[in-house]
């Protein structure tokens, strides 16, 4: 008996199982690495894009800003889906390579194990047959053949486990979520406020030194900007000329009744001065708003000190004082109208895309980037100035 030839025939079905897993997996490994790098790059892109978009939205209000924000969210969602898909593909590819390599190792191990067991038995039987006849050889050959069928079944099972793992990987890849970038390329539409950019804290109406000399230029907002401090009031007046145009465009509400002498509530201001609010609610709202100084600008935010936008700040401040006001800036033109020379702490300075809160002495607090105190003004990046309002009436 040719022991080598006999064993080769028995092992061949096992080797056929092994051959089904043969092949170079280095390409798949390289693909997994590429998917990992793609996921990291997409995540970084999403972060940089979101940061840039938030910077662009700081001080940008109105319908076009809202439309832009929806595009940012859609882009971020789509890129996030792509990043997650890349991570899933990386993991799936790695799983597939590991399954194939593990299957190859297991099957080769079974072949070696069977050969190591069978060879010495057959060799001994053949040697004994030279003296005792073929009976002993045939008995051992039958035993080895039965054992070969057992090992063939085991290698087949290993191959099936690899197939199952690969089937799961394919199902995982077929189940990837399709990224949705719907509407990203659509036009933003018309800006109701007439402008699209620049921070409210940085526009010339609020910070220009030349405005301070224009006390009589307050055609949109009045010279005193709150009944005190000529310099600050001039800032408000100068701004009025730039943004007021034909005058306030907000709703014409009943004029606020000035509080009786001695009924005001004191408020301490950041510059060390003090002012009197018309009531406790307004005073508490001002204190709340001032406590948010330094809060970063976050479009859609209303959660100092983590982040806030303009109307989020005023709504949060009044909400903390137990008084609810609407969320949109233009909707905060409510309560009672206030003449420019009768402004008191807690009054709101409202544009059609921005809002600030009067704190007294010609100053207001607003959510620029960050929340800060500026002179009262009536211009804001070309937005329509709606007027001064006292929410508490």
Uncertain regions spanning at least 5 consecutive residues: 190-246
Q: Approximately how much helix is present in the residues? A: 40-55%
Q: Tell me the span between the first and last alpha carbons.
A: 112 Å
How can the largest sheet be summarized? 6 strands, antiparallel
| Number of helices, where a helix is a run of at least 4 consecutive DSSP H or I residues | 8
Q: In the CATH hierarchy, what is the class of the largest domain?
A: Mainly Alpha
CATH architecture of the largest domain, by name, is Up-down Bundle
Instruction: Please indicate the count of domains.
Output: 2
Report mean pLDDT, rounded to a whole number: 82
| Widest β-sheet, arrangement of strands | 5-10-6-7-8-9
Report the portion of residues in β strands: 5-15%
User: For the CA atoms, what is the radius of gyration?
Assistant: 39 Å
Q: What is the N-to-C succession of helices and strands?
A: HHHHHHEEHEEHEEEEEE
Q: What is the molecular shape? A: rod-shaped
**What is the H level of CATH, i.e. the homologous superfamily of the largest domain?**
PPE superfamily
Number of strands: 10
């Amino acid at each position: 008996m040719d022991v080598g030839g006999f064993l080769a025939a028995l092992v061949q079905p096992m080797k056929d199982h092994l051959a089904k897993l043969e092949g170079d997996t280095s390409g798949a490994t390289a693909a997994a690495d590429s998917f990992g790098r793609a996921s990291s790059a997409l995540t970084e892109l999403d972060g940089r894009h979101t940061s840039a978009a938030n910077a662009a939205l700081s001080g940008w209000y109105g319908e076009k800003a809202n439309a832009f924000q929806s595009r940012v969210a859609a882009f971020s969602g789509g890129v996030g889906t792509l990043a997650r898909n890349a991570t899933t593909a990386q993991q799936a590819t790695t799983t597939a390579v590991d399954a194939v390599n593990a299957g190859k190792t297991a099957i080769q191990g079974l072949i070696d194990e069977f050969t190591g067991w069978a060879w010495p038995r057959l060799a001994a039987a053949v040697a004994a047959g030279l003296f005792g006849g073929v009976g002993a050889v045939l008995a051992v050959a039958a035993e080895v053949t039965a054992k070969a069928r057992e090992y063939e079944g085991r290698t087949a099972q290993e191959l099936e486990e690899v197939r199952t793992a690969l089937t799961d990987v394919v199902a995982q890849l077929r189940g990837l979520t399709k990224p949705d970038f719907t509407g990203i390329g659509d036009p933003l539409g018309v800006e109701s406020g007439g402008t699209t950019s620049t921070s409210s804290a940085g526009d010339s109406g609020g910070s220009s030194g030349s405005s301070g000399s224009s006390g009589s230029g307050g055609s949109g907002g009045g010279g005193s900007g709150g009944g005190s401090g000529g310099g600050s009031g001039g800032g408000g007046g100068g701004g009025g000329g730039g943004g007021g145009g034909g005058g306030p465009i907000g709703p014409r509400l009943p004029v606020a009744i000035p509080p009786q002498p001695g009924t005001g509530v004191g408020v301490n201001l950041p510059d060390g001065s003090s002012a009197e609010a018309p009531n406790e609610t307004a005073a508490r709202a001002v204190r709340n708003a001032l406590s948010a100084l330094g809060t970063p600008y976050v479009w859609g935010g209303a959660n100092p000190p983590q982040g806030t936008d303009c109307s989020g700040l005023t709504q949060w401040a009044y909400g903390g004082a137990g008084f609810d006001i609407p969320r949109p800036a233009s909707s905060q033109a409510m309560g009672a109208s206030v003449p420019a020379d009768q402004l008191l702490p807690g009054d709101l300075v409202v544009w059609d895309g921005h809002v600030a809160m009067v704190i007294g002495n010609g100053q207001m607090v607003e959510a620029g980037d960050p929340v800060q105190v500026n002179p009262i003004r009536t211009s804001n990046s070309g937005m329509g100035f709606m007027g001064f309002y006292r929410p508490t009436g």
